[in-house]
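Researcher: We're teaching a course module on how sequence relates to structure. For the next exercise, students receive a sequence and then see the predicted structure as tokens, so they can try to spot secondary structure elements on their own. Here is the exercise chain.
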Amino acid sequence: MEPLESLSEDWERALCVVAHPDDLEFGAAAAIARWTRQGKDVVYCMVTSGEAGIDGMAPDEARTVREAEQVESARIVGVDTVDFLGLPDGILEYGVPLRRAIAEVVRRHRPEIVITGNFQETWGGRNFNQADHIAVGKAVIDAVRDAGNRWIFNDQLTDGLEPWGGVREVWASGSPGATHGVDTTATFDAGVESLRAHAAYIEGLGWENWDPREFLEGFGRQAGQRMGVAFATTFEVYPMGWGE
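Model: And here is the predicted structure for the students to work with:
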């Protein structure tokens, strides 16, 4: 396996934009715990509330449950702010409306780094990625650039909201094209507990005897081997400059 390059940590503000509650907890949360412990400001944005994610629970009930689980999960890794955009779970489409919604969040929080999940077609094998993940990740890349252009979605520029072109990079966790990583040995346990906080969702999946720690250890140790540490999290890095 190719070694992973260490991610830069010379930044102060990050915005995490993913499709569903639980998306960050299936890998990235331990890294986020590391950064909040360093004093960095990290904000979560859930494009949907995951209301279609529990087969045995009606969407209105699931929305309330999953939002509460996500807020608690974020608290465990040191994140105080969780935005829910309320777009419909399971049927997100890449396009201008999705770009618009994410651009507004970028302008409001003014991050240096934006974190999303894997938005490639697969996870590196033959199993296809979920459609919402792909739509959101693609929209994140474009929305970050939209946010810095005064003439795109300029109806948002009211009440002090201004363009924001200060995003240096977008990082996609769990991508099969990952070339970078971060040592999460010291915060691995926090990552496990943040996933465990999605108890209703995990129960709804019906995975008999599924253990969050065992699941995360498999990926964390493999990534750690590529960095020479016990546990790590992988990211694909997308520079937001020109010509890189």
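Model: If you want an answer key for the exercise: Helices lie at 29-37, 59-76, 96-109, 131-147, 188-196, 199-205, 212-225. The beta strands are 5-6, 13-18, 41-46, 81-84, 113-117, 169-173, 180-183, 232-239.
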